[in-house]
Amino acid sequence: QVEVDERRCLLEAARGTPGKAGLWIGGEQFSVTSSSEVTIPSAKKKTVSFQMVLANRPGKGVYLARSPGAILVARWKGDHDHNAGNCRWLVYHFIVDLFNKGYFHDINH
Hints:
The chain is about 25% helix and about 35% strand. By secondary structure, the protein is an alpha+beta fold. It has a five-stranded antiparallel β-sheet with strand order 1-2-3-4-5, sandwiched between helices. The mean pLDDT is about 85.
């Protein structure tokens, strides 16, 4: 049995560059399948970018969103109401809501 530092795996994957161990959450290994930078536009001419990472395993997956001040981990299971698309939509809108409420007000980008 191999010991894995899940915290380190999460930090590396959230940057879009998973390490040799891959991504482990709750004792389960996930394969990072996509990573992209997403920008939130603002009427105040200030924007915030964050990294969104999708990782899968059979029948389930996670989205990671690395904002300037936090890493959001959202898990989904592959039934008809929970899937990668719905999970991504919720993560994106949660980050946008935080931005609109001033969560990122002191971050300069």
